[in-house]
Amino acid sequence: MIWGVNSFDQWGVEFGKQLAARILPALRGAPAARPHDSSTTALMAYCRALRRGPTSGRQ
Predict the structure, then answer these.
(1) Nearest CA-CA partner of 15 in 4, 31, 29
(2) Does residue 54 have a pLDDT over 80?
(3) pTM surpassing 0.85?
């Protein structure tokens, strides 16, 4: 919706796969091949923190 992509259109599906292929390794802890924007980087850090659970140093 943000980029005007219909997610049910084949082009939108393929574009989503490309984006996911770039983000998933970084979510799993691999170093990013290319830097992400600050918003994406912050969201990925948040998701990684959620995966670690409440005993990961948050109070």
Answers:
(1) 4
(2) no
(3) no
Distance, CA of 43 to CA of 13 (rounded, Å): 22
DSSP string covering 1-54: -TTS--TTSHHHHHHHHHHHHHHHHHHTTPPPSSPPPHHHHHHHHHHHHHHH-T
- Mean pLDDT score across all residues of the chain: 79
- Token couple for 23: 């983000």
Query: Distance (Å, rounded) from C-alpha 32 to C-alpha 49?
Result: 17
Rounded Cα distance between 58 and 1, Å, is: 34
What is the rounded CA–CA span in Å between residue 42 and residue 49? 11
